[in-house]
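Let's study my pick:
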Amino acid sequence: MRVKKAVIPAAGFGTRFLPATKVVPKELLPIVDKPTIQYIMEEVASSGIEEVILITGREKGSIEDHFDTSSELENHLRMKGRPDLLKIVQDISEMVTLVSVRQKEPLGLGHAILCAKKVVGKEPFAVLLGDDLIDAKIPCIHQMMEIYQDMEGALLAIQKVPRTKTHLYGIIKGKKVKDRVYSVEEMVEKPEKGRSPSNLAIIGRYILPPRIFELLEKVKPDQRGEIQLTDGLKELNKEIPIYGYEFIGDRYDAGDKLGYLQANLSFGLKHPEIGPKLKRHLKDLSLRFR
């Protein structure tokens, strides 16, 4: 069955970016000149997904506003004779069909996905986490949709990470079944240093069957009172195969200060307006700090 819906959780507090996120949701922090979440929406839209279920929390209405029409701004740009900027603004509001669902309490990723149950219905769906920016010629979720067509089960995006950093990720143990595809045998959430079953980390892209909702409803909260997606996936793996796909592209952790800066530099260097100037500036900095 073709994947037509995507869930994007965006209800977190963004505490790693305080005080900037005291007023501005972390999803709207810019990568060069676009909010982080817009890159995720563009990935969804360019992959042919028709509807996005945005899971939001309190004080996150500005995310919905960003993807809504803005008559005053559009009229202002018309009066100023800026059709280039007008098109950018209009394209944002026409990008996808957006449905917003409120997560009343931040009770974990599994709970956030569970909030989308009624809107998703009885069909497979994609999940994209806003902290993971993936720069790829073919959008990551599109790559996964192509792989998903040829298999039954669920599909996770994975990436090789240094062994010294496996404790920061959910890690799979798996058997390679075809090029870039692994059959998942085990999932460990943030294993202790030196005890990771592999260096294949789960990255924030998933294609899941609707069965995951019923399993998440039965998952017991962890010590922090949160429902974890990994626990639901472990139960799902007892019933159907789960696969990991090693995607092609460069991933940036935009939820981490260093990763966020790295994303800005990488996307900035590709930007037609500021790329050459930024490149010269970085050369000057490298000489200055030798």
